[in-house]
Fold these 4 entries.
Entry 1:
Amino acid sequence: MAETEQRIDPDQYRVHPGGPVFLKKWSTNTTDGFEGEKSQAPELLARLNARLADLQQMLYAQAQHKMLIVLQGMDTSGKDGTIKHVFHTVNPLGVKVANFKRPNEVELAHDYLWRIHEHTPRNGRMVIWNRSHYEDVLVVRVHDLVPEKVWRRRFEHIRGFEQMLADEGTVVVKLFLHISKDEQKRRLQERLENPAKHWKFEHGDVSERAHWDAYTEAYEEAIAETATDKAPWYIIPSDRKWYRNLVVSQLLIDKLEALDMDYPDPIDGIDKIKLTD
Ligand code: AMP
Ligand code: MG
């Protein structure tokens, strides 16, 4: 890294399995452990982007590991922005984004994991879930779309599902982009005032904001119930977009570096092959 040798430690944002989660205790706007200024963030992000691209190239070439990144957060928490800023240098050949919107009729006629499972990564690939099966214990709970008995037993299914993915070789990383209610107001206001952002505004954004506390409670329980060693949750301080991007980038780099990858061996006799014309 450059002269300043700044390093963010994303592990400080990991949720330790077994305890309750109180989102109020997790900062939304800290830049903890990062001595730099916002002005240095673009340069650092560029370096992290380049490193992530290198690692992803190796993941793709080696085709032995796979990574799933689950992105969750309140409306306006920055899921789309994170995808744009963290992944823009990565080769699109090896990365896919799956967006989970309101389920359609066919999806609703199946179990809730049916539409999810087909979007898991294959060897060599990274897949980002922009919302996920967690909506089935969040929005579904807040809006009473199914009885409590039904959503509550899903925590166990989800733990089992993610454990299975991890056991079968998927690196699972779950990110909760944590913003304050005030920051959401600023971002919604911006969507109302900036014509270039009008397209992002939906009526639902105002009505959903009224359920902030219910979503907070739902997230706290969902995260606590499903934070495991193999499929950990990270609560990313996300009021400052630049810091959020740095933390997420560094976290994914750390996860990929831990795989200790290498390029595959070349084919036999590659050094003797001559191109004749
Ligand atoms: P957005 O991410 O802003 O494009 O919005 C997608 C919408 O789809 C959100 O309001 C989600 O709560 C909703 N959604 C996603 N998955 C589900 C689900 N399983 N059940 C109900 N609504 C969902
Ligand atoms: Mg939206």
Entry 2:
Amino acid sequence: MILTITKLDKIMKKGKMIILSGPSGSGKTTISHCLLSKFPELEFSVSCTTRSIRHNEIHGKDYYFLSINSFFSKIKKYQFAEWEEVYPNLFYGTLKKEIFKIWKSNKHILFDIDVKGGLNLKKKYPNNSLSIFIMVNSINILKKRLVIRDHKNCEDCENNEKNINYRLNKAEEENSYAKLFDIVLLNIDLSQTKKKVIQIVSSFIYG
Ligand code: 5GP
């Protein structure tokens, strides 16, 4: 779902946005950490989510962890630039004020968001956004990554497995949207992918 961002339009001429999307487990979070350490002029857009916090996450740094009521109250008040029900009953969204805050501080924005959210932002900001789709060519590799990550983060194994299977099914659907992104990168070797993304982002920011 896209919402209008009128105030932001005035300052968006200078600010750029880099949208990293791809299936859960594709490596986009690792890549986004790499970009943030490489480019001081980039700032991560912290999203809101209604999912529960993982053991290594910090409220306000990784996400703003909200109750469903609080998330829906923000929807009603038109506070989101975009939001999606990324998984059943799990909502994620980008606050307009997060975008506003980053551009106001003269930085460019880095998003790590789902495919539909990414495409919505790209549609909204066609001239100053760069959308990058991180793809994994094997569902087995994706499964391995998700199992390792979720095993570390949750004690509820049954729910974990359901969750992983859902994410894998969703990954197949998400891959079909890849062609709508500005750039598609097949993440076979993470260090090679990082190098390519750094080059691409560098020419987008400085070029
Ligand atoms: P996770 O729960 O694994 O952190 O994230 C699940 C998915 O939600 C990932 O694909 C992530 O990129 C996406 N996501 C995170 N923040 C947002 C957001 O603000 N909007 C949308 N549409 N997706 C998001």
Entry 3:
Amino acid sequence: MEKYEVSYKAPSNIALVKYWGKKGLQKPINPNLSFSLSVCHTVTRVVFRKGVGKTSCFVKGEKNDNFLPKINAFIDRISPEFNEINDYKIDIYTHNTFPHGSGIASSASGFAALALCIADIYAQINNEPLDELFKQRASTWARLGSGSAARSIYGGFVSWGSLKGTTSKEYTEDFATPIPNTNIHPTFHDLRDTILLVENQEKAVSSSSGHALVENHFYKQGRLHQANNNYIECQERLMDGDKEGLKKIIESEALSLHALMQSSIPYFVLMKPNTLNIIQKLWAWREQNKLWAVFTLDAGANVHLIHLNKDKDLVEKFVQKELTTFCENGAYICDHIGEGPKKLN
Ligand code: 2P0
């Protein structure tokens, strides 16, 4: 029986300039920028067996149908480019290293790992190399599963989307593009992300519903203007090593994202009181200690504390002493900028 089997590990990522609002087939209305994590990742094995049959998904070894609607929609979206996919029965075995739906981008690492597996099998079937084009295809396909997943195909700092008013090939909405390390000041080469798990549950409003509310948002034009500016400035600050400048962009992006949610119609709030408690404590602590530690938020209540590797012991002491009290069961994850996905044996 004709059979293909492949496994990939793919990271979650944290956006410094946020993707919020879509157009067309899951393209971002504004350019956005993230770095890929390391500890938070998904491991996925995909098996294609020639023959017809429903796709199955197993999470941590147990059959799980919850993800099938999104997975089937994803397969429908990539099948125009990958016709042969319909000749196979697909089994997916997957697990995350972090809680699903906790506001850590599980769909990003999940669809990145799945897209890499399927793009790899596509390359095998079509006798194609696993080159840059393969990665671009994987990023395009990952995007069709979940927008932010497009960025998780690469390690380091990653950009996705077009700058308003530019037709430069440097920018594309189809897939994400890694930012060369030579464009990143050494100060930021070993950033860390300590993720404070304020809430370990599924969030109340999905990101997809939140994105959709931007379409008729009263502040949409203002947001586009702001995101374009922040995207350009973020790249400049990453390059020139201006920590204070970068801090303002990162925190403003996080608060603007949540302000958009809170001013959508219908409006919703994903922050929790402890989200703000952490931010207040952080601001007071860093003022006192003159340290560079910056918060950002994803579409959830958790707080990502971005800091430099050299300060990691001080930050962890602060987290343990002053912040774990605001975390569910005192939980936090020490993560750092990562090298990107990996094919597994
Ligand atoms: C981001 N987020 O840039 C933004 C900021 C969360 C906050 O992209 O509907 O799971 O699957 O494309 O990518 C989360 O939304 O949404 C997200 P879909 P996705 O990381």
Entry 4:
Amino acid sequence: MIKDNVRVEENISKGIMPETRRKALKRIIKEEGFIRILEAHNGLTGLIVEKTKIRRDNEVKEFGGMWVSSLCDSTAKGKPDIELVDFTSRTNTINDIMEVTTKPIIVDGDTGGEAEHLKFTVKTLERLGVSAIVIEDKVGLKKNSLFGVDVSQTQASIEEFSNKISLAKKSLITDDFMIIARIESLILEKGMDDALERAKAYIEAGSDGIMIHSRESSGDEIKEFCNKYNKFENRVPLLVVPTTYNHISEKELKDMGVNIVVYANHLLRSAYPAMVKAAESILDNERSFETNDLCMPIKEILTLIPGGE
Ligand code: SPV
Ligand code: MG
């Protein structure tokens, strides 16, 4: 483990070539069966995902890679999560993260846009060294899934979305890059049978992974999906985003057959209240003295990123 850490530190300072990073996600899933992913929306949060480690019972625990969330990338730019932040801007965020990290990256590709455009998008991500794109089976104006049926959202037909998957697959150059199909049936209250039928169809269309999303807080529907999904003969890696059902532990998720767990928004959601608190404190006190305890020391911020001296 320590040896691995030394290697990671060396890698960060040296950097990593796109082909090496791109391959890493598939390799880790194959070798370990499970990977823990955390959201990053800029270079600094990328560094947090890259470097944060804790030691527990002689084991070093860390994140396996990064999720470039549409919600957090948009929110960090002060924009709503409706595919308004265009692909050029999303690519800039990805580049900022890549500049300072070495771990594999999964990009939240929203609906993937037009199938004819997605063919180009996946090629760009593949060339950059991203390991996977997740595309969700919605059409029209996409809204964040956690709104559920409170807002109007339309699911693509199975045929239309399967076609999108196979077109995207055909345009790839390597075997490393994964197209992960995200099923919104449970979010849109279309039922378990619909979710399972779609999982079958999307795998047949060439999907390298399935993401099943749910906003139910008990986690029961995710457990039911996993049970039934695990019986598929041609099962591909399964990704979940336990935001609302976050009482379920990683161990339980592993036992349920989950291969990729994504903590999709926690760095942004934890930073925002801290920043608002500091801003309010300055207004309240007409000086920043009272923020001292809320802030990291000046020396620490100066030395946080090496090379600034
Ligand atoms: C995101 O992080 O942008 C996601 C996951 O798509 S969710 O917000 O839960 O829909
Ligand atoms: Mg998203």
